[in-house]
Amino acid sequence: MSDFFKDIPKLAYEGPDSPNPFAYRHYDPDEVVAGKRMEDHLRFAVAWWHSFAWEGGDPFGGQTFERPWYPQDDMGRAKMKADLAFEMFDILGVPFFCWHDADLRPDQGNFADNLSTLDEMSDHILGLMESRKTRCLWGTANMFSHRRWMSGASTNPDPEVFAFAAATVKSCMDASHRMGAENYVLWGGREGYETLLNTDLKLEQDHMGRFLNMVVDYKHKIGFKGAILVEPKPQEPSKHQYDYDAATCIGFLRKYGLEKEVKLNLEQGHAILAGHSFEHELAVAGAEGMLGSIDMNRNDYQSGWDTDQFPNNVPEVALAYYEVLKAGGFSTGGTNFDSKVRRQSLDAEDLVLGHAGAMDVCARGFKAALAMHEDGGLEAARATRYAGWDTPAARAMLDSDLASISAAVLRDATNPAPVSGRQERLENWVNRFV
């Protein structure tokens, strides 16, 4: 075992006035709010890929981190990485982790060896889980990094790549099932196109829909009780990805008969790339009963790509959790930090404190969201704004037709006066809580 995390103490709640950098100031996992422990509301998860597999590169430069489990091409180092991951889970006291297959084991270049090493790593992780509290929130397959995926996975023009993708997802679902995962996620990555000049868009989307139906069928075949989730992202690396945003994914799921079987895993950074706010994406999914889980990271608003930074904006986080609460809170889902420390943040302490700070920000934001939710002022203002639709005449109009409505407008000399949306008043109301 490496001493990578040596001298870093287990974090505990010490209150907002604590000067200790290795303490929680706002996140008390045992604090009971709205009838549940904070840990059970927020359901924090550490992302295996950005915390342990990412080497600190960016589009213009390579590895900056030096970790004892590098290079990541050896099963012995893969097991060391897992051991140290659980050491950090213990330090943070997090209840969950998430993974891609390529995070856990080195890519062997062929499916049989990938399957063997994934099974071996699953056994190792199950052994680590026996004496720890941390459980698996979800697993997924990395079908975007290796060159075989350069033209997509389920949407690939080569049927052999489709077959390799199907076998890969089956192996990851099996591993997730063995680990007791509460969800299984599919993120397209390269399920999209670079140019329409060489793309059969309808065929690719039909194949993607059929693939996802196979995933759902296999879930029921093996008795996996978790939720199947898809994760929207508009672009990067593809010019246009088919799972562009929440609304696009919902439409896709309905087209292929999956709306009752699949929900969404939504990420703040992906929402920004799609030109939306995070609360917009959460509200769209929540309105359709399809909000499953979230990746709580952020993008740099001055960069046009996915920077995956830890959250640090309490008002933004509060508005996001307000939509989560409106949707009924998490059931199988949770708050995964699909976040990475900056490539200049080299130390083990940086990795721990990045998560600790994010957990505090989320706890503050969640408490503000809960206070707003319990106060009810925002929903009361909305109800007042739409109160006109509660009248019998307004409801009857929706069952009418254009000619009848037009006749009524002429008969009653209808000439509506605009009514203020009161946006500034509502923004001031939100600021009372954050």
Automatic annotation (TrEMBL):
Species lineage: Bacteria, Pseudomonadati, Pseudomonadota, Alphaproteobacteria, Rhodobacterales
Organism of this sequence: Aquimixticola soesokkakensis
Keyword DNA-binding assigned: no
Requisite cofactors: Mg(2+)
GO function terms (MF aspect): magnesium ion binding; xylose isomerase activity
Gene Ontology CC: cytoplasm
Listed GO biological process terms: D-xylose metabolic process
Record note on cofactor: Binds 2 magnesium ions per subunit.
Main localization, broad class: cytoplasm
Similarity-based family: Belongs to the xylose isomerase family.
Record carries keyword Manganese: no
Catalysed reaction, written as an equation: alpha-D-xylose = alpha-D-xylulofuranose
InterPro entries to which the protein is assigned, alphabetical: Xyl_isomerase-like_sf, Xylose_isom_bac, Xylose_isomerase
Residues binding Mg(2+) 1, per UniProt: 231, 267, 295, 338
Subcellular locations according to the entry: Cytoplasm
Subunit composition and interactions: Homotetramer.
Residues the record marks as active site: 100, 103
Underlying gene: xylA_2
Protein name as catalogued: Xylose isomerase
Residues noted as binding Mg(2+) 2 in the record, renumbered to the chain: 267, 270, 306, 308
Entry's EC annotation: 5.3.1.5
